[in-house]
Amino acid sequence: MKLPAFDYAAPATVAEAVRLLGSRPGAKALAGGQSLIPTLAFRLAAPPLLVDLRKINELRHIAFDANAVRLGARVRWRDIEDDGQLGAAHPLLVAAVGHVAHYQIRNRGTIGGSLAHADPAAELPGIAVTCDATIAITARKGERTIAAADFFTGALSTVLADDELITELRLPAWPRARRWAFEEFARRRGDFALAGVALFYDLDAQGYVRNAHIGVIGACHRPHRVPQAEAALNGRRCDAATIGTAAKALQTALEPPSDLHASAAYRRALAGTLLERALAATL
Amino acid sequence: MKVSFELNGRPVQAELEPRMTLADCIRHELRQTGTHVGCEHGVCGACTVIVDGAAVRSCLMLAVQAEGASVTTVEGLSDAEKLSPLQAAFRKHHALQCGFCTPGMLTTAHALLTEEPQADKARIREVLSGNLCRCTGYIAIVDAVYEARAAYQK
In the CATH scheme, what is the code of domain B85-152? Predict the structure, then answer.
């Protein structure tokens, strides 16, 4: 369908953007538009005002410091793909982003848009939650940060208020020796995954798993870590027996949705298989 | 709202509502109907155009977002008389049947080969996975794009 009517503004600063967002209840920020425009085309949303972020250059940074990898909200999938340092600085992020959508969408879709849209099958929210990332938000009354785990409240739902703008995603710095893997299954390349698993862990001097982080997308109502599966790994060697135990723990813990794409039982079984594959890939 | 941008090398202007997509602006306001609109929600790739060098879906971009940009549609890939090497390769390989998806295939492949003239068949397939064709089965399309690489070598 054609899009519903809305007013449009393209401010040059974050301050002006949040002022505009606060000026009309239901106003929405527009970045790449690769989720928002289809939502409008389906008439699932009819915001009175779109605040286009295209002139706000301060949100396009990819920066590294001792504690974090920092991505501006307007960083596109394409920018992550093309960045020379991210492959070493955060290999799990780069691997997961490799599964996002198609060529044309990757040229416009942004990380801020993906976080705000909060599709439970989207890769970036899953990485943010798995990695204990922090999301920086600016509102008229000031800035705040929120843990990714507290940001997503359900399918397409977040704690973001109408007059708030996501400005940055901060992923904790990544030790070079860390083991990691990302696995997802979609019926066609670039489609949303029926299920996906992101994970990392560190090994101690004796070769035992420490600090296991396992996150799920697709087979869930919002991306989340799975402490039961992490507990099955921590303090053990990552061998075939441990992998089997972790996969069972994951399957027991999940409460996947059923829809026309896949049943809950299928998604649960798939997530277990993906976890087995992911852990095997870390060996 | 008034929007000004460059379309296939010529400056253009239109007066339109903010809700108008770039695809509809190009077709209805600027009367360049080579760009096809299939699904209107970013799935089929038929409406792909090139904005400042990057292939994008013109149904997922507002026309007002193209302010100041350089936009290339299928009409801009060759002059009126002669097929471009990419278009000639499509013809040689019979890489179309009904032709509805072809403008999006050509703009996508042109953007790809301009950036990556060494793209192998796996990369070509990956990139074209964002463009649906319900007639040909893709084999001829991939062959045509692969053969056209020669014309893009720097």
Answer: 1.10.150.120
Beta-ladder partners of A225:
A215
Q: Do A3 and B41 touch (CB under 8 A)?
A: no
Chain A residues touching residue B17 (CB < 8 angstroms): 5
Residue A128: both structure tokens together: 């943010």
- Please identify, among A172, A191, A225, the residue that sits at the C-terminal boundary of a domain: A172
Mind listing the pLDDT tens digit for each residue in A101-155? Answer: 999 999 999 999 999 999 999 999 999 999 999 999 999 999 999 999 999 999 9
**Tokens read off for A91:** 């290999």
Q: Do B19 and A37 touch (CB under 8 A)?
A: no
Per-domain residue ranges for chain B?
2-77, 85-152
Residue A84, classified by CB atoms within 10 Å of its CB into exposed (0-12), middle (13-18) or buried (19+), is exposed
CA–CA gap between residue A185 and residue A168 (Å, rounded): 28
d(C-alpha A131, C-alpha A213), whole Å? 7
Chain A contacts of B67, Cβ < 8 Å?
10
pTM (2 d.p.): 0.96
Q: ipTM, 2 decimals?
A: 0.95
CA-to-CA distance for B9 and A51, rounded, in angstroms? 29
The per-residue pLDDT for range A67-79, each reduced to its tens digit, is 999 999 999 999 9
Inter-chain touch A34–B108, beta carbons under 8 Å: no
Domain span including residue A84 = 59-172
